[in-house]
Specification:
Maf protein; six-stranded mixed sheet; globular; binds inosine 5'-triphosphate
């Protein structure tokens, strides 16, 4: 079966494609499809907006991910707004800003959340959620992953998410967990 991977984030494309391999689905990119503005106030709403738009535009099932990092000492921010945090242009700038906001904060607990929505052209939706808790580091560690990965030390891990291989990250990450639920639901 063909499935559209409905994300413009290259880091997510890598992780989604790698995890879906056991299902034998043929993963396709967005092509000329543009994703709608994320007007929802929850990961669930935004993932559904993206997946439905891609499914309607292509006539194929489409898988979208909406995700973010929630920092306890910042009241759960940036959360759903993680991609737009500070209105700055790059992952590195967002990381600098987050470190700045966390300066002198001793409670550094945070969690990543991923919500996957698989939308079918007939309007049917499947939803999967995954989370991983951890601590924000005082500075970046590692060159791997994407986004906030170099700043995040998962609970029980000696490696930051930026220091992990793709396989190591998938085994413990929010997205890896949501994907595991999707795979289980589809018999893989
Ligand atoms: P699409 O909407 O096209 O999928 P996006 O990057 O805009 O791409 P989101 O709106 O879901 O996606 O924003 C999530 C942001 O949260 C993302 O840009 C990263 O900054 C951060 N994030 C999500 N998952 C992450 C992960 O596994 N590692 C590091 N940062 C992550």
């Amino acid at each position: 079966r063909r499935v559209v991977v409905a994300t413009s984030n290259a880091g997510k494309v890598r992780e989604l494609q790698e995890a879906l391999a056991p299902l034998g689905w043929q993963c396709e990119g967005l092509g000329s499809v543009t994703l709608p503005e994320e007007t929802g106030s929850t990961y669930e709403e935004n993932a559904a907006l993206k997946a439905c738009a891609a499914a309607m535009a292509t006539g194929l099932p489409a898988l979208a991910d909406d995700s973010g990092i929630e920092v306890l000492a910042l009241g759960g921010q940036p959360g759903v707004y993680s991609a737009r945090f500070g209105n700055v242009g790059s992952d590195v700038e967002r990381n600098v800003l987050l470190l700045e906001k966390m300066r002198h904060k001793t409670d550094r607990r945070a969690k990543f959340v991923s919500v996957l929505v698989l939308a079918y052209p007939d309007g049917k939706l499947e939803e999967y959620r995954g989370e991983v808790t951890g601590q924000l580091l005082e500075g970046p560690r590692g060159e791997g992953g994407f986004g906030y990965d170099p700043l995040f030390l998962p609970d029980g891990s000696a490696l930051s998410m930026g220091e992990m291989t793709l396989e190591q990250k998938q085994a413990i990450s929010h997205r890896g967990r949501a994907l595991a639920a999707l795979l289980a639901a589809h018999g893989a």
